[in-house]
């Protein structure tokens, strides 16, 4: 799980995570929200559990991706964060459907989608 701590003056975003003891590599990527590519990777030390990004602007959102590889597996975490971002009031649409007759709708036969 990734967590972010933001500071306004000077602008910075600190990304934090917990890494296993048997970590063999860690890589961080950052991109603007609307960018298609992650860009260049930032190689982190195997004991690092934070990254301080000082190349940020107030009011701009950034996506972060951390890839941690151990001797057994590889895991990825994603985070979207920024400083003083506008509130997102609409997150999509919600619909529901049921295969039961009207008036006989229970949680077991109700489907909900976003």
Say which CATH homologous superfamily is assigned: Immunoglobulins
Strand percentage lies at: over 45%
Provide the spatial order of strands within the biggest beta sheet.
Answer: 4-3-6-7
**Could you name the CATH class?**
Mainly Beta
- SSE pattern, N- to C-terminal: EEEEEEEEE
Task: Describe this entry's structure for a reader.
By secondary structure, the chain is mainly β. The protein has a single domain (3-113), classed as Immunoglobulin-like (Sandwich), CATH 2.60.40. The protein is 0% helix and 47% strand. It has strands at 3-7, 12-16, 23-32, 42-44, 50-53, 61-70, 74-82, 95-98, 110-113. The strands form 3 sheets. The protein has a 4-stranded antiparallel beta sheet with strand order 4-3-6-7, with no helix packed on it. Strand 1 and strand 2 form a beta hairpin. The mean pLDDT is 86.
What would you say about this model in short?
The chain has strands spanning 3-7, 12-16, 23-32, 42-44, 50-53, 61-70, 74-82, 95-98, 110-113. It is mainly beta.
Give me some keywords for this one.
Immunoglobulin-like; single chain; 9 strands; 4-stranded antiparallel beta sheet; mainly beta; 114 residues; globular; 3-stranded antiparallel beta sheet
Question: Could you give the topology of this structure?
Answer:
Elements (H helix, E strand, L loop, with lengths): L2 E5 L4 E5 L6 E10 L9 E3 L5 E4 L7 E10 L3 E9 L12 E4 L11 E4 L1
